[in-house]
Amino acid sequence: MVTVHEISKFLDDELNIKEIEDSSNNGLQVENVGEVKKVAFAVDASLAVFEKAVSSGCQMVVVHHGMIWEGIKYVTGNDYQRIKYLIDNNLAVYAAHLPLDMHPKHGNNIKLAKMLGLKHLEGFGEYKGSKIGFVGDYSGTLENVKKIMQDNGMDTNCWSFGKQEIKKIALISGGGLFSVKEAAECGVDLFITGDDSKYSAYAWAQELGLNVIIGGHYKTEVWGVQALMELVEKKFKVEVGFIDMPIPI
Known about the structure:
Strand order of the largest sheet: 5-6-8-9-10-7
Helix content: 25-40%
CATH topology of the largest domain: Udp-n-acetylmuramoylalanyl-d-glutamate--2,6- Diaminopimelate Ligase, Chain: A, domain 1
Oligomer: single chain
Strand content: 25-35%
Distance between the termini: 40 Å
Structural class: alpha/beta
CATH superfamily of the largest domain: NIF3 (NGG1p interacting factor 3)-like
Number of strands: 11
Number of helices: 9
C-alpha cells in the first residue's frame, strides 16, 4: 500500500524543497488517510482542479502553484471551500513551487532549455541567493525559437528590440521579468519568460536592445509537474493523470 506521506517524502527529498526561500509552503499542504491509488498532476491548486481529480478517482493532487502561501490566516471564503472539499473527498494536496522551477533534472526551466536545444547551460536568474533559471548557447533565428515554442503549445508574444540572429538565450518560467536587466548583463540575445506583469520591464528591454518572448505563465510551467508525473508513476507504480486547465493570461 502506498500512502500520501511516502509520496510526499520522496518528492521532498527529490526536489530539495528546503533549498530555497519561497513564499509557497512547499510540500504536503493537506493530507488524507488510506491508500493512494491514483495521483493527479496540475499547475494550479484550484477547486476546479480538485473536482476533476476526485471525479477521475484520485486520492492526491500534485501542483506547482499550491493553495497555502505564507500560511493561512483565516479559514473562510475560498480557503474554507477548498479545504472542506479536500477533507470531504479525502484528497491530499502537495505543492512544489520554486524548487520545481529550478530543479536541474525535473524543473520547468531545464525542460524549456532542453526543448530549445540550448548548450553549455549555466544558472541564471538570481532570487534570494539561488539561480532559478538557465542561460545557454543557441544557433538560429528569433523565428526559429518562436516556432519551437508554438509547436509545444506556448505563446510567442515578442518584444523584438534586438538582433534576429540568436546566439544566446536566458529563460525563467512563470513570472521572471525581474531578471530582464540580468539577462542584458549576461549578453544574451533573447530572454524567455512566462508573463509580462512587470510593467517597467518593457521599457528596460527596449532601452537595453533585448528581445523578450512572453510564453504564458501557465504554458511555461506545465513541464515540471508532467516530469514529476512520470517520476511518481515509475517509483510507486500508481495510476497518474495530468489535469490541463490553462489560465489565459
